Amino acid sequence: MRHPGCWKMLTVAMCVALLGCLQAQELRGHVSVILLGATGDLARKYLWRGLFQLYLDEAGKDYSFSFHGAALTSTKQGQAFIAKVLESLSCPEDVAPDRCSELKGQFQRLSAYRHLATREDYMALSKDIEAQVQRGGLREAGRIFYFSVPPFAYADIARNINSSCRPGPGAWLRVVLEKPFGHDHLSAQQLATELGGFFREEEMYRVDHYLGKQAVAQILPFRDQNRKALDGLWSRHHVERVEIIMKETVDAEGRTSFYEEYGVIRDVLQNHLTEVLTLVAMELPHNISSSESVLQHKLRAFRALRGLQKGSAVLGQYQAYSEQVRREQQKPDSFHSLTPTFAGVLVHMDNLRWEGVPFILMSGKALDERVGYARILFRNQAYCVQNDEHWVADQSRCLPRQIVFYIGHGELGSPAVLVSRNLFRPSLPPESWKELGARPGLRLFGRPLSDFYAYSPVREQDAYSVLISHIFHGRKDSFVTTENLLASWGFWTPLLDGLAHEVPRLYPGGAENGHLLDFEFGGARLCFSQQQPEQLVPGPGPAPMPSGFQVLKARYRESPLISAWPEELIAKLADDIEATAVRAVRRFGAFHLALSGGSSPVPLFQQLATRHYGFPWAHTHLWLVDERCVPLWDPESNFQHLQTHLLQHIRVPYYNIHPMPVHLRQRLCAEEDQGAQTYASEISALVANSSFDLVLLGMGADGHTASLFPQSPSGLDGEQLVVLTESPSRPFQRMSLSLPLINRARKVAVLVMGRVKREITVLVSRVGHEPKKWPISGVLPTSGQLVWYMDYEAFLG
Ligand code: BG6
């Protein structure tokens, strides 16, 4: 016996307690709760309190209990810690003081510290539990192991429990796991496989404490109890948008070593906000008390999530963050973190119910207030004739119509369910939710509280207490199953990968953030409302203020160069194109734009399609710089790219669109069909002086531009405006504007993106005019302007 003192204490405590609690009552069994990491922060703040609440709720009912606080701390220290925590426990207001002190005394006697490290320790624990149960003449009902330990300790503990501390036949085992559950899909899968080697799925309870928040736990019951009213409302036909928000005022100071690895998306969006999202969006099962069907419906909701793209998110980082990381992790002055502490993400669901409805997920540290909610905002198609002073909350169709699951904090200061009075009077279980009293002067989402039917819990309970009770009752729907966990990581991992090198927008923190982090969406993209060039590479010293940001302007091959991170670069290029277009239309009545193919311009097309409402499309002529000799409907066709990413989203007159005639008489780029000459004639006829207002080019890793490849026998000089060329890669045949025609343009923009271009960028910076070797070096407008647009990876590597 390793700790005879402890054992003796425990035996006495158990006997007294068992006798005390059992009295004459017939018990269904004994439950042992083993809290691993019993001296840690989470245990101190929430878990002991939650276990005490469990005891308050269950004492004198069907089961007897023992609570084992386990850790690696020495027995003496552990005992002292636990004694202190237990002493500080208090009962909720609805428990009479006498009853409270009696139950608290019992709980203290039932709880003991135990040093738990080796396999032998676990064997000894198991034996002790068996002996206790036997002495009490009881049957063992089950064991709960609560892992409040860092994930690296999981495997050892799991192995020890599995090999040496499982309860005997007929009794259940429940292991409770705390996040993080991995870092991405792969690591979550590995962790799940590892744990799956020790425990069965039904034995694992993965905690997401947001599922224990009262307003979150009420989402499904609310939907269920108000089915009749909601049936006609809960869909894309009526919902304008859904906001799922968790704002915090605290920052990450003191926990940057954790935070640096995770960031806000992994820390909050992947789990808490996603769980809330699925509860709002899933189809409602017939029987919401069936854990199995709730979990299955949730899984289906995951499957309906549309994949995220880089442009689906905006990221921020509070300014003091990097300095905190440097200090807490002894990093050099030059260290700058890219970890986001703020994120807004636009999510869509591809199913009949939610098609087209934006779900906005947002969370951040160092914001102006602490508040969390899921808000369902309904469309409003009413027009009210009377002055708004006469709008009456429960009658006027013009007031905002919304349902809010108010998770907590904020102006209201407590969890609540709010339903606009002009929607319907909701039904909530009266034993656990009560109507909120009047709070004159209080406004929520810009409306007085009196606009809502507002309910709050009769007894406020913290999330952990709720979840511990659900663990005890085996309510698996309040926990994250392996399948759901992997589905969630499957959804978030591509976005996380895509954003890995994204520079978050810096924000000062608190109220000073002003509108810096406001964002808006168009189509599938989300962007900050305030356009603001990002800083290049922040230097050491105090973090720059918003006014100190800049895009790098330099020169490259003696022409202006603009460099920035990809998103800002594209935004800048799109702005410049629009400005050029507006000027050209004002001066000449038309704007002639020639666009390249390939992948680099795709984000530019998307940007132009979704963000440039003032673009003079009606007066713009769109030409192709080059084309692959494939039918125009072929996915490889440059025209197809243009069509998919730009043309179908804008209104350009058909006769202003000029695809290259690569497909004539049912054949591709046949010399005899004279496609190149036809295109040249069309240009000469429509474009004054054959001088495009703007030609957008790219630069290939081999130095090609347009479809003019090194050693090209044509198109580098001479009279021809449009030529047929050969590419070293498929499809080999191409049609291209010639260098002489390109160089007649008023403006040429060369867009170069990505690390793969770094080598050629360096090389071309040094070579002279050698278009035979590097056609791009032949681009030099005769009287127009050349501007290079390079992202940092292409320019700086
Ligand atoms: C945790 C995150 O899961 O949730 C923290 O790791 C965050 O970063 C916390 O502060 C917020 O929880 P609550 O209950 O305070 O809203």
TrEMBL record:
Compartment(s): Endoplasmic reticulum lumen
GO terms, biological process: glucose metabolic process; pentose-phosphate shunt, oxidative branch; regulation of cortisol biosynthetic process
Enzyme Commission number(s): 1.1.1.363, 1.1.1.47, 3.1.1.31
Keywords for this protein: Carbohydrate metabolism, Endoplasmic reticulum, Glucose metabolism, Glycoprotein, Hydrolase, Multifunctional enzyme, NAD, NADP, Oxidoreductase, Pyrrolidone carboxylic acid, Signal
Boundaries of every Glucosamine/galactosamine-6-phosphate isomerase domain copy: 566-788
Domain called Glucose-6-phosphate dehydrogenase C-terminal: residue spans: 222-513
PROSITE patterns in the record: G6P_DEHYDROGENASE (PS00069), PROKAR_LIPOPROTEIN (PS51257)
InterPro entries reported for this sequence: 6-phosphogluconolactonase_DevB, G6P_DH, G6P_DH_AS, G6P_DH_C, G6P_DH_NAD-bd, Glc/Gal-6P_isomerase, NAD(P)-bd_dom_sf, NagB/RpiA_transferase-like
SUPFAM superfamilies: Glyceraldehyde-3-phosphate dehydrogenase-like, C-terminal domain, NAD(P)-binding Rossmann-fold domains, NagB/RpiA/CoA transferase-like
Signal peptide: 1-24
Pathway(s): Carbohydrate degradation; pentose phosphate pathway; D-ribulose 5-phosphate from D-glucose 6-phosphate (oxidative stage): step 2/3
Glucose-6-phosphate dehydrogenase NAD-binding domain residues: 34-216
GO cellular component terms attached to this protein's record: endoplasmic reticulum lumen
Organism domain of life: Eukaryota
Reaction catalyzed: D-glucose + NAD(+) = D-glucono-1,5-lactone + NADH + H(+); 2-deoxy-D-glucose 6-phosphate + NAD(+) = 2-deoxy-6-phospho-D-glucono-1,5-lactone + NADH + H(+); 6-phospho-D-glucono-1,5-lactone + H2O = 6-phospho-D-gluconate + H(+); D-galactose 6-phosphate + NADP(+) = 6-phospho-D-galactono-1,5-lactone + NADPH + H(+)
GO molecular function, one term: 6-phosphogluconolactonase activity
A Pfam family per the record: G6PD_C
Family: In the C-terminal section; belongs to the glucosamine/galactosamine-6-phosphate isomerase family. 6-phosphogluconolactonase subfamily.
UniProt-listed NCBIfam families: pgl
Subunit structure: Homodimer.
Protein name per Swiss-Prot or TrEMBL: GDH/6PGL endoplasmic bifunctional protein
Originating species: Panthera pardus (Leopard)
Classification of source organism: Eukaryota, Metazoa, Chordata, Craniata, Vertebrata
Gene: H6PD
